[in-house]
Write a sequence for this structure.
């Protein structure tokens, strides 16, 4: 994925989990902060863009 917008639904290519983009940090241009749908953790995690794909 080349660019993501806050709120975009995504799926992790290798692990299969889904989530929502929380933020695309400017200093980590090849990463995005993602809130996993399956996690109760209130904080998003930093994920490589190449590991994400659009989810429906």
């Amino acid at each position: 994925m080349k660019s993501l917008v806050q709120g975009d639904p995504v799926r992790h290519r290798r692990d299969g989990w889904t989530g929502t983009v929380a933020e695309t940090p400017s200093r980590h241009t090849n990463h995005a902060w993602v809130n996993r749908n399956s996690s109760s953790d209130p904080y998003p995690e930093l994920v490589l863009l190449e590991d994400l794909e659009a989810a429906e």
Observations:
- The longest strand covers residues 18-23.
- The chain has a mean pLDDT of 89.
- Strands lie at 9-12, 18-23, 31-36, 45-48, 52-54.
